[in-house]
Amino acid sequence: MIPEAREVHLSRKDGKVLEACCRSPVTLQRDLKRARIVLLAADGRSTRSIAKEVGVQPRIVSLWRHRYADHGLEGLQDKPRPGKQPIYTKTTDTRILKLLDKPPPQGFARWTGPLPAEALADVDVQYVWRFLRNHKIDLVARKSWCESNDPNFTAKAADVVGLYVAPPAKAIVLCVDEKPSIQALERAQGYLKLPNGRALTGQSHDYKRHGTTTLFAALEVATGKIIATHSKRRRRIEFLDFMNSVIAAFPGRKLHVILDNLNTHKKNEPWLKAHPDVQFHFTPTSASWLNQVEVWFSILQGQSLSGTSFTSLKQLQEHIDAYVDAYNDKAEPFVWTKKKVRQRRFKGRRITQL
């Protein structure tokens, strides 16, 4: 049964708004139909005739006649709908975060996605995973840091960085260090054919040891070129022998050598006295990352040593020498981009151990 038709009195202002709505090409169809219903009702048309012209049910016409008569233009807007209440709220997110701050269950090294869901009992594991992704929380990755307790950190770091960004005139700046105990491992390598026809390249987990070598390296900061030599050990005598070869490579030049705090690098005053053109600069304690040759050792490991196999120690040494030659052909200096060196204090910070 259709309710009794409500009389619609349309003001001039509302009429202009509704007519503009009907003429606009961007008006939604639902808003267009509601506007036409009110305009036709204001002309005194019956509910059934309006429904037939607009193409809706008579009860729809009656609804919008009543809504406009009671509330005006605001009545033509959709009322807010309650919708379905969310299962998980911000309170749930807070509970997950508080739980992750606590130690994992006994016997587990770290939290994983299912563990918070089990501990909370009323939270689905799929929501836990979504929450972790949205907040960019990686439960597997681990950050590491090295805190320098050197009281002269700022002065030493500024000294080293100053050699990088503003080297002394007519002097050579070198970064020197050792990569000890590089193993000559012989591994079975080749292709493994799978039952589905795919072929994978790889190496066996089994290996034979053929000895180790210690690589002494000096990186020339201005050019990026490497001077390297091999040794069986890394004692003071081997270090000073290597420095003698470095001096021979730059005859008559003043050398500024950046070193870490290894014992063999220190207490070499007699040698330094005999070589007045050489000056040692030491990185702060636990800050050997300031030494650029460490970057080159990482490049050497990734491009030359990882995934290789050697049948003898000599073959390993020749392999490294060949890489050094190839690297020097295209060597470029590293660019130091840090403009300011600040000492960040760690004292008083709370570190939570999971």
Automatic annotation (TrEMBL):
Tc1-like transposase DDE domain residues: 173-317
InterPro entries: Homeodomain-like_sf, MscS-like_channel, RNaseH-like_sf, Tc1-like_DDE_dom, Transpos_IS630-like
Pfam family, one: DDE_3
Top-level division of the source organism's lineage: Bacteria
Source organism: Bradyrhizobium barranii
Protein name: IS630 family transposase
